[in-house]
Amino acid sequence: MNKRDARGLAAFLVAALVATVGVTGASAATTWTVRPGGTISLTSGLFTVKDIPTGSVIICVSSALSGTLKSGSGHSGTGIGSITTVSIRECGNLGMFTLTPGDLPWRLNLTSYNATTRTVTGSISHIHVNISDPECSAAVDGTSGTAGNGTVHFTYADGTAKLKVLTTGGNLHFRNVNGCGGVVRNGDPATLSTTFAVSPKQAITSP
Q1: What's the alpha-carbon Rg for the chain, to the nearest Å?
Q2: Strand pairing partners for 72?
Q3: What's the whole-number average pLDDT of the chain?
Q4: Res. 30 pLDDT band, cuts 50 70 90
Q5: Are residues 103 and 12 in the same domain?
Q6: Which pairs with CB-CB distance under 8 Å and at least 24 residues apart come from 55-58?
Q7: Which of 4, 45, 54, 75 has its Cβ near the most Cβ atoms within 10 Å?
Q8: Are residues 68 and 6 in the same domain?
Q9: Are residues 23 and 50 in the same domain?
């Protein structure tokens, strides 16, 4: 290859890279359509909190959330919804644990959409949950016990109106642990796990 051809190839590759970066940037600026939006409720059966290193799990019989979703089209995915009330019920053996949500409202954020499967991925942010029983207290949060910046990721299926909280991708940790006998430990990574039925059924699409 002579120098002229090499320069031409280099220019082509640079142009292709610029075009690719431009496409990626446009993709990151996705907008969302939500119907009907408005007031929503999310209800689940078993709701679990797990200390990953110790393997300890607090199992709650059910949970119920309520909040709002923006309606219509052209919305950013960040803060497209909010969770204003959270109730987590009958936790641990004979309901000995009390789980008290804090730093409400929690935020619903949307990040990507698979048109083939009609599945949304997103996150719930601003999470804080206090855990207590007669001999144990702790908080589940993000970077500190008072930060109110815990995050979990989820998938939502348009077809079934089910929102599944994932055990990967979040930043939850046990914080401010007092007592607990090593069952949960300060600084240990934590997960929340449950599947919510969303009502009324939402059609969430992008663009």
Answers
A1: 21
A2: 34
A3: 89
A4: confident
A5: no
A6: 56/183, 56/184, 58/91, 58/92, 58/97, 58/99, 58/131
A7: 75
A8: no
A9: no
